[in-house]
Amino acid sequence: MTGFDLPGLLAFWGKRYDDILQLVGQHLLVVAVALLLATAIGVGVGLLVWNSPVGRSLAVTSAAVILTIPSLALLAAMIPLFGLGWVPTLIGLTLYSLLPIIRNTVVGLREVSPAIMEAATGMGLSRGAVLLRIQLPMAWPVIVTGVRVAAQLTIGIAAIGAYVGGPGLGQMIFQGLSSLGSKNALNYALTGTLGVIVLALIVDGLFTLITKTTTSKGLRA
Amino acid sequence: MTDSTADTGASRVLGGRPTEATIRTTTTITTVKNTSGAHIELKNVNKVYGEQTVPAVENFSMDVEPGELIMFVGPSGCGKTTTMKMINRIIEPTSGSITVDGRDVLSLNPNELRRHIGYVIQQIGLFPHMTIAENISVVPKLLGWSKEKTRNRVDELLSVVQLDPKTFAGRYPKQLSGGQQQRVGVARALAADPPVMLMDEPFGATDPITREKLQVEFLRLQESIGKTIIFVTHDFDEAVRLGDRIAVLSDRSKIEQFDTPANILRAPANDYVASFIGHGAALKRLALIPLYDALLGRATDARGTASLSETDSLRDALDLLVLTGLPAIGVTDASGKVVASVTVDQISAELGDDAGAGAPGVLS
Fold first, then answer.
1. Strands across the sheet with B329-332, in order?
2. Residue A136 sits in which domain range?
3. Which of A89, A98, A105, B65 lies at a CB distance of 3.0 to 4.6 Å from A161, suitable for a disulfide?
């Protein structure tokens, strides 16, 4: 294995850019779909359990336990159930995303002051209306922050998905690792790793935009 | 001197019989109230929390006439807020009956009920993610009003609470001062024109200057809308200033006295009520009596250049008498013409006379 060679890396990018872009696209897609699923599930669970101490700790603890399972182990464990490829990766990423989303949803819903809840109830809003029309919009910035944390988490974990034949930049990293000593081994691994980092930064920037456009002006600092 | 011309003494004051010892100023303000309020009746209402043996509210009964502004005054924890909150069932009574215009509120759907009872709390509780217009539109939307009707109502209400609709409708609560937010709180409670308003220390969190301004505006507002209002406060002076009748409450929401401010100040029912009034009961009563309601001296008796308007209170008059040291001070009518005079003796006489349910007294 040769040492780091910048001209070589640039030449590698020049030759493989369409492969690289395709993997970046896949990586982004699998993370985005997992986040959408996790947001739907996590916010739903949060809405159900926020006001019940037992339900709340059950949901948050379960999601926390999932997060402690090493990603490689979780993905491998899913092979017998779901085979290889996109499906186990998607499920794994969704499960890992649940903790920050559920926890932030619960925190956000509980943070709404009793005075606002009482005013809403006193005006004749039903419990469901208070939850969906008052609490949820007020909790939204906190929930989006949870999704943002989940995004950072899953962009990294998605790379491991290549272990079960999942899509994304992990494929490059694994290819590099499995061909150590060959001419492009380091280029593969570096490109995959750098890609994940750059993607994480871009997505984080994207979330700044998402938070701004989906939060009421009245709630922004 | 009880002749009926006393109340229309304009001719006497302006050109009439200067020998008259006492006169009244020209204006007779008729307080015909527009009432859109409802009749509220609480009968033997009790509230016992959970396993507690001592009730928070015990056997509370009260009859409130349409358009009345009733003040609940009492120390913290006496159950005044609990009592009020049972009317819109934020707190469910343990027993007893509550009716609004004859309808038993306990048999109604609570959400439906609350849409027809305005509710203002001390912390205001505006929804921060909604604009001022959206905040005010919540109940009209629940009631299925058209967009047009709702928008017109929002503009109308903002004007009523002295906020320019063009400037404020699109703003968010955090962009408003505390006093402005409280005005929006009142506007929001009035949105669907409810016959009943419940107000829980609505001005309690504002600074004294803003509070007084809000109180004055609120009184003027109530004069035109005539809602039936239950207003909870721990500030007796606020109760005197605003209330048509005051219920002085002690532990377990026991009614110690329920009467007009003037009657409570003149004849507190017991030591508890007296202690609540505190010092200066006479001065507080004077503040309730405008000069146009008092028997005054002739304009020619007035000394000095200082003068009072007939809409000022006897307390203002006393203040100016003490300050200037003059024996009598002129009282002007709306046009600024001195039409009468007032002395300390006449002020004292008003206090002595005020027996008999606040009927204007007569000096003989």
1. B307-309, B329-332, B338-342
2. 6-219
3. A89
